[in-house]
## 1
Amino acid sequence: MLRVPSVQLSLSARCNSSESLYWRILPGRTDQPWIHKNIPYKVCHTFVRNPKVTNSEECCCGGQESDHVPGFTRDPSTTNWVQSQHTRKHKGWCFGKIRFVEEDGTHQPDFVRISDDMMERHASTTRVLDLLEQKWRLPRPNLLISVTGGAADFACPTELEKRFKRGLAKAAKSTSAWIFTGGTNTGVMKLVGEAVRGTSFGSQIITIGVATWGIIRNREQLVGKVRDGKLVKDYETKKDMVNEDRRGAFLDPNHTHFLLVDDGTQYQYGKEILLRAKLEQKISETYGETDSTLPQICILVEGGPNSIKTLLETVRLGNPGLVIAGSGRSADVLAEAYKLSSPEEAIDSEGNKITIRVLNENKKEDLNTVIGKKFPNSSEKMRDDINQWICELLKYEKLVSHDS
């Protein structure tokens, strides 16, 4: 078990609002920072050797032996790693502000490492909202913009990229919106960061990155250091300081806040999807007017299979989606699926007549061909999953629109 040295702490009466959750080390008090007490994360505490890896000692969680917390145990009797059995909640010093060392240092985003199930219960959900409202003191939003898409760098047509950046920044500024992304310095997340940075009002646009902790490169730099009495972590994005295999992605320096979602695994993408969808929905419910929710929209730009799943999770909750056709991969597959589908009358859960779009069996085969071209390395099961997700998305015709 990782032991954190006992430190007597007190909140300085002179701390301004942006420093309210960072505690100065002073004698005579035994308080702890609010985040340390209320926002746990998960760690793998049982090493179960991965039988698929023959040339190294790797746990089924994805981490090496050195990646585990002190005091972890081994279970040689099984090769079946189960999250509920082999992880546990942990309260550590993994929050504060990030100083991107390659930048000028004036912009220091807030961050916290957070357990993937924090939106599952009322009490923990309330603590997450308290973090945003009371500790990070975010201004009330009038719109929530959720951007999903390619996690890797991709070639977006120049004119389309300009239109997207310009339109996103203008919409966010004019509506006092919060923007949610995957938070890394790649793909569409990097595009969003450039959009808000490329405006004279970039620092005023709340841009929250929700990323999987286990895929963040140099994440070791975000644990434990205290600088100038505040939890400011120096973070490098030009080279790997510990791990040289280059798996994962760096955080984007242009976001204002980060929620780094930890389910106890490492190098496994998509672990933030459900928490992000539930958080966005809860924010919409919390900040909406009387008898209505806060307007929100999910925008899909390019993207891999997980982006389609993210859009589906959002639309299932009754929120609209916008697909940027022509941006590549998932966005183009969805645009093509829309063209292949045809309208059909149906009855909703309340007995009302609605129009949905459906694919007949021949068109499903055509869609599988498109999926195979856009995702040539995908397995047959993954292609079937994508087809299934798209067929469900087409049923929400009024909630999904396309722009090109």
Note: The radius of gyration is 22 Å.
## 2
Amino acid sequence: MPGHIPIVSRLGLAEYVQLLIAGSILLLEFLVRVVAVLFPSDLFFTLQDLARSHIFRERPASHPLLKCRDACDAIRFHGFTPESHYVTTPDGFVLGVQRILPPPSPSVDEPNWPDSDNDDPGPTPFNTVTNNTHPSHLLAPSRPNGTYSTSSLHTVADPNHGKPAVLLWHGFMMCSDVWIFNPNTRLNLPFVLAENGYDVWLGNSRGNKYAYKHVEKSPDEEAFWKHGMDDVAGTDVPAVVEHILQVTGQEQLTYIGFSQGTAQMFAALSLNPTLNQKVKLFIALAPVAKPSVLRSSLVSSLVQSTPNLLYLLFGRRACLKSVSFWQSTLDPPTLTRLIDASISFLFAWTSDNITPSDKHVLYPHLYSPASTKSVVHWFQIIRTGSFQMYDDEPGLMGSMARTHVPHRYALENVKTNVWMAYGSRDTLLDLEYLKRGLNGCAVEGYCMEGYEHLDMIWGRDVESELWPRVLERMKRG
């Protein structure tokens, strides 16, 4: 075709406008970073508050949960006791894992929580918040007999001893925060499970805020980020499962995944026959294996691009790392508008089933670092229409010119029983693909009418419509 220029002609005028906007945002981020460095922090946040009140005409969001620094703070806020564990994988990544214990003794003094100017403290948690009776940093799992060693002189009883273990795992570019930062305690599945007698553990994938460490490599090194979903499925998940079983002395556990947390378990079970014996039930919330084509024409064009172009755009370390900067800089209402607009642009989601007040608290915890390689891997899966391992040398001319066949994740090897819950408006779901592939195990499903992807953990009706069904399925074993 006359005038057709390869690559350049692939994008239309609208896509180039979107790229221009993205470039403008990067420039704005640079300017804001300069201002944040040059001006004192108090003056910077004062200017931020003035802009919010005079430009957007709104009162700052100030829920006490916004003062919580990490998962352990949030667990305490909701009235439970956190316990931190660190699992070192065979290839050297140190994964932070949180365990939820019962509320501490009411005789212990309450902690000094940060002051808040919010007159409404939010929904009443299950129990009064009190100090941890045995700080998590002092506890080291010693043996699976219901005790922990806190020193060479004495041990303390494990308050979760004998309870069925359940491991929850977050989605793509997330961390365990997404499970526990809803202001309404009963909308957080881990606390519902803990109240119903389960020993609850929260997993984290390598590279995110709780797994940002390696025994030899630094996050500043490119080598630290040469990992993706293959490594999480083949190494992280089995290592955490094994750690939990060793600590609890149990032979099996229940696994609950959200989004990529489901894909990595599908992958792990397809590769590891032994893991199928250790996971007695797999609950998949908003399951994903082969996502549908993304709604954004710009992103769809990137999906069809070569990995080298994607690495050129996003770098070879953490992808979209600047999101963390905006999360900490923008006030919750502004961040909410930005994220709502972004997910509408990418996936055509409305997020109407998540209340605005919940978004203000949840969205600052939506993103956590992940490698660019993991993004490239998902783009390969979408482009090929196959739930497969990362392809190190994809053919430039498409599948017909391949010199090799990428290894696929054989879903038929999954033997663990699977219970799926999904939304009728989830544009990432390919239910028929999963049904066809999962032919070696019992599969059940439940559809939440009108629900989208994120709604399956944050929707306003999960307490009444979804969590009871999760509990009922877990009780059946």
Note: The chain has a mean pLDDT of 82.
